[in-house]
Amino acid sequence: MNDREPLLALNDKIVAAVTLLKAGKNVAFPTETVYGLGADIANPSAINRVYEIKGRPINHPLIVHFAEMNQLEYWATDVPDSAWQLAEHFWPGPLTLILPRSSHVPLSVTGGQNTVGLRIPDHPIALALLRALGRDRALVAPSANRFGRLSPTSANHVYEEFGNKVSMVLDGGTCKVGLESTIISFYNSTAILLRPGGIPIASLEDVLKQKIVLKGNQDIALRTPGNLSSHYAPATPLEVWPTESIQQRAQQLNKNGLRIALIVWSDSDYLSQAANENIHLFLMPADPIEYGHQLYATLRQLDQKGFFRMLAEAPPLDSAWLAISDRLQRASYNTSTHL
Ligand code: TXA
Ligand code: MG
């Protein structure tokens, strides 16, 4: 079954999705960040299939999604005050908290670790699905893309990634955030940023009235395999260049007659003059929220157009752009610029 069946009303689709999930199938569902590839936390073989379908190593932990705040202490133990403060302020929302796991969370979900990633997503379909699944149940879900690739921000992207390998894709339109959740772990009560995402760190700091520690040591990086340097990558090689040198780089490649996509946000004459029959200019919003909303869909679209390379203008060095800088950096990690 898939969600292209127009005759089923939303409520019937949720009922069908719950039936499939309880029978051990995988259902992709929309969240406000990106689409997730869901499995019932109580079904070990459905969890294994998530890893198989994605091609993801089994030591990479999955996020546990649930709907009600009072379930936090069902899935986690020893929740520090700072975690409560963030949960109460930002959930439902694009924030994942890494906390000591309770005995209800299987080790297959946490990659064998004693911590678990938890989040209440802010999307009406995700919340309806989680509520229909029932109390003390949850959906484990990574982003619904093949390992290392761009996360999906529409139901069509999920079909592009997995075709019929997923039993059902619930279509919730375009994800309003478009980048994955911000991930925070805790050392005692100190909050540590493991992945920049949908919630800017300045907003977290405002609520906690403390500085968020930026992850900067190997130990934490190792515990967060999503931090593998190459990730979130399109198939077309991507390079990131500062505003001053991107035009020169495009012209250097253009000398060899190669087709280049220039992805820019600063709407300067200097950059628009760079466009010609081989250098195609794509203007992104100069606002980080809008840019984040469009980033993956844009990279996916450009990936279909047979460019030799995509060159992205480096974002401003402002913390509001941190998640975007992070994703562009990872998406470009494997590209050699010796050309
Ligand atoms: O916005 C999101 O977070 C989306 C939607 C579907 O919720 N999910 C998502 O999942 O991005 P995934 O699996 O693609 O990325 C989850 C990240 C991975 O980098 C994983 O290593 C990290 O969360 N993570 C999960 N549990 C963890 C834990 N116990 N300790 C450290 N990192 C953890
Ligand atoms: Mg992912």
Characterize the structure shown.
The protein is 34% helix and 18% strand. The chain is built from 13 helices and 14 strands. The strands form 2 sheets. Strands 7-1-2-6-3-5-4-8-9-10 form a 10-stranded mixed beta sheet, with helices on both faces. It is an alpha/beta fold. The protein binds threonylcarbamoyladenylate and magnesium ion (MG).
Quickly list its features:
binds magnesium ion, 14 strands, Rossmann fold, DHBP synthase, binds threonylcarbamoyladenylate, alpha/beta, 339 residues
List the helices and strands and how they pair.
Elements: H1 10-22, E1 27-29, E2 36-40, H2 44-54, E3 63-65, H3 72-75, H4 81-90, E4 95-100, H5 107-110, E5 115-119, H6 124-133, E6 139-141, H7 155-162, E7 168-169, E8 182-187, E9 190-195, H8 201-208, E10 213-214, H9 218-223, E11 238-241, H10 243-254, E12 260-264, H11 269-272, E13 279-283, H12 288-303, E14 309-313, H13 322-331
Parallel strand pairs: 1-7, 3-5, 4-8, 9-10, 11-14, 12-13, 12-14
Antiparallel strand pairs: 1-2, 2-6, 3-6, 4-5, 8-9
Helix pairs in contact: 1-6
The structure holds threonylcarbamoyladenylate and magnesium ion.
